[in-house]
Amino acid sequence: MTFRSRLVSREIVAEQTLALRFTRAPGFRFLAGQYLDITVINAPEQDAEGPMRSFSIASAPDEPELLVVMRMRDTAFKRTLAGLEPGAEVILEGPAGDFVLDAGEVRPRVFIAGGVGIAPFLSMLREARASGRIGETILFYSNRRPEDTVFLQELEAIARELPGFRLVATMTRMAESAREWQGETAHVGTALLGRHLSSVRGPVYYVCGAPTLIAGVRYELEHAGVAGDDIMIEMFGGY
Question: How far from each other are the two terminal CA atoms of the chain, in whole angstroms?
Fold first, then answer.
């Protein structure tokens, strides 16, 4: 499904990180965890990959607007998208993707997010908070520093309110931070998982983030005996 949309607002939500809200076409439906493609109309500059990129939808399926989160980098597409003013028109195409929850799954779920890879999980958790149901689920949310972390306060609130859900946030470069942090500082791997899970084997895993995070987590999980079919991945490129 392709439709025209307008930028509603943009907001800095962490260092070098923007949250952008777009109008949602009547009848546009998606599942929590899916993504869409954004094309900038008449982009003033383009790189070899053109004026379109894919973004996971961070808003819940029942919200009136579409939220995406973008880490800023010095690329033509991101400079152009970040420079749009509210009211600017874009083309959205979607939804797409199968990084969604299996409603029939009874095993515990482990979410692993790196940086703005939190987006599909935020959609899932917002939907779960509204319904009051998610089942046994733990989110491991990895960032370099608190300054880089998006939606942490909202996730902490969901962890307090939603039965069955736990949050483990970890900051892996606190030596570079000006803030205090009392939580975990380890990289996500079986050592960290083992401190918070009764067993690394048994849950079904959902992993979203940069290719290096996904490769490292997948390697450790499979070497710990987790079946490949129990590891769902959604990879974020830098573009």
Answer: 24
